[in-house]
Amino acid sequence: MLHGRDCIAFAQAQFMSDVATLGDGQWQWSGWLTPKGRVIALFAVLRHSAERLDLIVLDADIAALATSLKRYVFRSKVSIEVRSGVSAMGQFALPSIARGASASIDASVTELDLGSLSEPRTLSLREADPVIAVDPDAQRRWRAFDITHGLPRLDAAQREQWTPQQLSLERLRAFSVAKGCYPGQEIVARTHFLGQAKRGLAVLRGAPDAAAGEDVRTGEQVQGKVVSVAGDLVLAVLPLERLDVPLQIGGIDVVDTPLLDGLAR
């Protein structure tokens, strides 16, 4: 949580999305980059008010992220806290109130719409810590949904490896090339305006034992790298322009599957 009168200005100067465009109760995909434009962490930014932002962090170490961000506070009137006692619950159901980029916020529960038109999903954040039965099948389905819709899930080895364009984060409207300076902005803007993005995400199916960081090959030639895995689904960074040739991961043929839309906010 970012709290204080300068929290919006601080987030605007550090994160890759245009946080200043958010109204109260709205959220957007965003992230934090290295000065060389590599993604450290991906998260959703939710604006409660002019003096409070919540970060819903996907995979990064939350405590380490908070510690790193605090190094850049300097004289800004903003505090950065890791909230304890908050539980997250996902459901494949339509949110009660939240729609698109508009969240539902009350005293005990915050709901975000993380679904698409064809398949609804709700993420609920609760202040209390209720006993929730974990459903492994539902967890796998949730992660598979993320991958098929092009939402990268970055384990520790994949952080600081990819630019926003290589992760096709323009599909999620997760970064801005026009809002002004932030870490990595020069690299992101140059890549955009000079048309230098040569690689992006692709969904591949058929490699149940694939691992993040593994090569995607055509015969002996390396075409790209695996970013995220869910069952036999793989999210990989590959050339945007490539020949229609068979691809393999670990010697196993995989099938190129279209990325689905629906998660842009």
From TrEMBL:
It comes from the Bacteria. InterPro entries: TrmE/GcvT-like, YgfZ/GCV_T_CS, YgfZ/GcvT. The keyword Ribosomal protein does not apply. Keywords: Transit peptide. NCBIfam families: ygfZ_signature. PANTHER family: TRANSFERASE CAF17, MITOCHONDRIAL-RELATED. This is Folate-binding protein YgfZ. It comes from Luteimonas terrae.
